[in-house]
Amino acid sequence: TAICQSITQLMMWYANNAKYFPPPSTAKDQFQEELVIKPLHSGDIYASFQFRTQWDTDFLLGSKVSHYRLFPKSLGQVISKFSVRELHISFTQGYWRTMQWGQPFLPSPPGAELWVWFQDTVTDVDLAWKELTNVLSGIFCASLNFIDSTNTVQPSASFKPLGVGNVTDQRFLRYAVLPREIVCTENLTPWKKLLPCGSKAGLAVLMKSEKLFHSSFHSQALHIRPVCKDWQCKSTSWELRQTLNVVFDLHTSGQGKREWSLFKMFSRTLTEACPLASSSKVYVDITDNPQLFELSPATPLVSQAVVLGDGRTYSVYDLTDHATFGQTHSLNVLLRWRAAEREMLRPLLHGERYVAGYGLQTGEIHTLVYNNHPYRAFPVLLLDTVPWYLRLYIHTLTVTSKGRDNKPSYIHYQPSKDRLQPHLLEMLIQLPPNSVTEVTVQFERALLKWTEYTPDPNHGFYVGSSVISALVPSVVAMDTNNTQERPLFSSFFPCKEESTYFMRIYTEPLLVNLPTPDFSMPYNVICLTCTVVAVGYGSLYNLLTRTFQVEEPSQGLAKRLANIIRRLRGVPLLT
Amino acid sequence: MEEDALNQSTAAEADISLHMLSESPSGSVVIYVVPESSTVLPEGVSVYVGQRRTALLRAGGQMRVAVALKEVLASLETWIKQVLQVMSFSHGDITAALSDRVRPGDRSREGLADSMRAFKSSPGYEITFSLLNPDPTSHLLHWDVEAAISSYIQPLLSKMAPVANFSIDSQILYYAVLGVNPRYDPTLNAYTLNADSLSHVINPVEARLGSSAASSNPVLNFLLYVPDSRHSPLHITDHRRHTVPSNAFSSPRWGGIMVYNVNASGTELPVDVHIDMRRVMGVFLPQLRLMLGVQSAAPPPGFLIGPCGNAGLADWELDRLMWTRSVENVATATTTITSLAQLLDQIGNIVINDNIAEQVSSAVASLQLAVGQLEVGNLGLAMQYSKEAILQSERAFFDPSLLHLLYFPDDQKFAIYIPLFLPMCVPILLSLLKMASEVRQRPGQGQAKKD
């Protein structure tokens, strides 16, 4: 029996090792797709798609990469032409409500956000950035070409590279947000085209734009970065991650019934996996089950993952397995709610922002950062980008927590230049436990030139979201070693410590009114002046061209009255 | 020395050894006259066109009698004219190069078709090979495109490097379908695509191909379509409903499409298919030559054109292409500058900055240099100058600063002054009316006075 035991131990060891050393596959690129469905606290439902293409190639070396299989050619050309090290772009419609929905897997601010790390071989980063934004706006059919030096910043600490490599010189980083950008189908179609299966097979079949945009929140993003090829990290490969996050509203589209299915959400069901995908899975978060809802069809596969510092349990539907689709050859996951709505969440970290003050001359920006952790303090990095036409009075900057002054341990401020560069304010603030930290700064509104106003100036001018990045203490210990096996949605931000996890949240964008002139005034003035001139001209013209004749002076009023009376009396008239 | 070379057993060997002896400059043609008795040329062939810039011409029968040099040349003149027609730049080539600008007139249909098929001259081209796999569940396609390009396409492109810059890439597109449903032909036991319907094939595919993000050069697309198992085998038929042996077609100034049938008899799906790149490139290479403007007219009788070797392009063909391209570039740059001048005449308030003026003047300078070099016969330099002229003239023409005041039309200016003009018109019109009525009354009064 002793021999038997040792053999089983050995076999288990082998099995473990097999898990850690993935078999070397011949294909140099692989594709994974994944859909996470998470019933939210408010009763809404959150669907998050992730598509990952990994390619063992090197865009950085001299050899030209020009033969594409799964990786989209247009993006590959962009990477090699502009020497991009990392590229993160997101298009978001709507604002993520942390208080009702908790944390998203991948945060994004309303509008369009783009941040790029260039290779350290790039000599003229600004030129490359300008051309890159133009090319990307062509690829994604978006107005990224409005990104110029007035809304581009180089944050010193908030946006570190997420992939491998240790270039952290901020000269090669560019960050820009367009809060005004409206996201719609024309942005989704090119995004879908980048997937190897397009929208013909696999999870992407569900992406019907009329359903996706009939939602409370829609965010599509694309992340390119170099990652470790395997867990030993001896060589790198390139990762393209395309994500799409949607929150469907229970009240507007549920029609009173408290149940959800894939068909109700997307008006499609799943019939097959993308044949090019090495893994294709649907996860449903069942941590709150069975108190909250009921799930059908049942699946035997259950996966545990630590997501955002919290241990969650997921039901897994493996689409590469034919048994998943059952007799009907289609998969329609159905959720039926049991419990009623619950009260607001108290997320550990939360941010808010608003403009205070009255009049059109000065104002004050308030940023509130909540730490709801009962007993642990943690530092956060706050990044504010304010356009030049709001002139910040940086001497009025105050940071207070619990009624006391809270001095930031690090401040990086780059003043604005009119029509050239925006304000950049970065601070490292220690948040005391269970506290609200308020950051205020006063500003003055600048007068714009008349050509600089937008077509609808009375709507107001947008100021992009503040970015709060933090290492938040986690509830459950995270597994930092093995990131290969984890589901895609839990493995985006690199995690180095077991007790904390990285989190980034975005506040609301601001809408600020600027003093706006009456644009019709010049035309009114022209009209008025022209009329006056025309009247003057008319009378002068009359004077010059009229012929004057002497006329018999007419009878006076008294005489006419006297004549009427005389006629009545029959007396001869006066002449 | 040259006699030794000409005593080689075959014409091809003679051609190579003659080339070793003397390197002829680009644009020139060297004709060697060999006696009729020479065995270099095969039987029945009187002219051999080599792969360099040489031709071997068999002397006629009357040559045996010793006569004056003048008469010899006179007797050879017709042949030499024909040789030059084949090997050098001729009048037809000029009209072909300028076909966009000159009325076709009495040119042959074939020449016109050739010139329309070729891409317009550009300083660079992007060549994209795309493998279309409409059904990845049944076929798993493998193509070694990298090796195929380096062994078949790259030699041609490196030979053509003086003409333009080329960049090559390839991609695989899944679930890409053609725009036409093929028809089943029971006689062939196969599906067919008729030549009439080919024009509709490209559109849906093109949406997936994606334009080149990195440059604005024209893109040559070569698509390899592997039909799915439900529509297999698929044949392209011509207008007379015969199947085309190459099973491929080309679209003028766009690229080529080849249908590659696989007999997927495998039991387990998906079937692994390794594509025979030799066969594919055998179709794409001639298409590429046509697209790039290498003309291949049929030689006149009695001519033998030597094999064009590894590069797929003879030196004299390259010379002809460079002639054509230089002329075309010169014409394009001239048109661009002329249209800029015309635009300035039409719209007066365009601001020409110093840098645009500089671009225009340097474009004109390069144009003059290019024309000068063409006159001398320096093809390489002429090509280079004409490319510079195109680049500079287009940079001047498409400069964004030209657009600023382009759209401030006159009618808007008048609209602003309507509040001035309209009230001012009122007294003028009224007095005109009054004058008119006075004029009408006055003759009446005159008559009344006469009475």
Written overview of the protein:
- The complex is a heterodimer of chains A (575) and B (451).
- Chain A is of the alpha+beta class and 575 residues long.
- Chain A has 10 helices and 26 strands.
- Chain A has an 11-stranded mixed beta sheet, covered by helices on one side. Chain A has a 5-stranded antiparallel beta sheet with strand order 15-16-22-18-19, with no helix packed on it. In chain A, strands 20-21-17-24-25 form a 5-stranded antiparallel beta sheet, with no helix packed on it.
- The termini of chain A are far apart.
- With 451 residues, chain B is an alpha/beta fold.
- Chain B is 45% helix and 16% strand.
- Chain B has helices at 2-6, 11-21, 69-87, 91-97, 109-117, 145-159, 202-209, 277-291, 315-346, 354-376, 379-397, 410-416, 418-450; strands at 30-34, 47-49, 54-58, 124-133, 139-142, 165-174, 183-185, 190-194, 219-225, 234-237, 248-251, 255-259, 271-274, 303-305.
- In chain B, a hairpin with a 4-residue loop joins strand 7 and strand 8 (190-194).
- In chain B, helix 9 runs parallel beside helix 11 (379-397) and helix 10 (354-376) runs antiparallel to helix 11.
- Chain B is extended.
- The interface between A and B is medium-sized, with 39 and 31 residues.
